[in-house]
Amino acid sequence: MNHRLFLACAVALLSAVASTVPAQDAARGKDSARVAGDSRVAAPARETGEAAPAQDAAPLPDTYRSVALGMDIETVKEKLLADGMFGYRGDRDVSLLPFANRALIETVGPSFIRRSWFQFLEEKLYVMIFKLDSERVDYYSLYSSFVAKYGEPKSIDPARAVWSDDRVTLSLERPLTVKYVDVAAFKSLLDADTTGKAASDVLREEFIREF
């Protein structure tokens, strides 16, 4: 994937989180339950009309298989080499992005994961993106599994469903991509970008006043 396209996707993801629209619950019938997974389907409402108790949602994950957000780049390399799911080939899959203190690992997998991207800020992993094989797994199955584990998404539209808390943003995007983002690290990037733009605006005004 082109590095600029990768960064554009990451920024679009944060924008989607920032402009979240509350997900709409499916209409409930008196004796129907929202489908959330094979073993976690909510119980029907009682005959008295009292709503069935909601399942407790699990915390959003910051780890996929053995790779976790916040890991340093050398540890991530070791984890990828030990797991054939990712198809990591060593340092030839690592590249430096045209930004200070940023690196990218891009791999091509042989199975359910077709491609993976691991992006680092100051050598710490803050974004994981997995493009899945849509012939082996489907969007609805993943969505149902996510809802069963983590509850209803914070926002949903035809392109993506997004779950988010103060630590992690997890998104499921069509046709079939899963993204994990470290919220604090991403926010620091946005804050730095805003500060840089503000400084640039000041310099511009000073330049204009010189005439």
Kindly list the characteristics that best describe this protein:
single chain; 211 residues; alpha+beta; eight-stranded antiparallel β-sheet; two-stranded antiparallel ribbon; 4 helices; disordered N terminus
Structural overview:
- With 211 residues, the chain is an alpha+beta fold.
- It has one domain.
- The chain has 4 helices and 10 strands; from the N terminus they run H-E-E-H-E-E-E-E-H-E-E-E-E-H.
- It has helices at 3-18, 73-81, 139-150, 183-209, and strands at residues 63-64, 67-68, 94-96, 102-108, 113-121, 124-132, 155-156, 160-164, 168-173, 177-182.
- The protein has an 8-stranded antiparallel β-sheet with strand order 3-4-5-6-10-9-8-7, sandwiched between helices.
- Strand 1 and strand 2 (67-68) form a beta hairpin.
- It is globular, with a radius of gyration of 21 Å.
- The model is unreliable at 1-54 (pLDDT under 50).
Please give a quick description of this structure:
The chain is α+β, with helices and mostly antiparallel strands.
- Principal-axes shape call: globular
- Low-confidence spans: 1-54
Taking the sheet with the most strands, its summary is: 8 strands, antiparallel
- Please tally the β strands and state the result: 10
Overall helicity: 25-40%
Strand content: 15-25%
| Domain module tally | 1
The strands making up the biggest β-sheet line up spatially as: 3-4-5-6-10-9-8-7
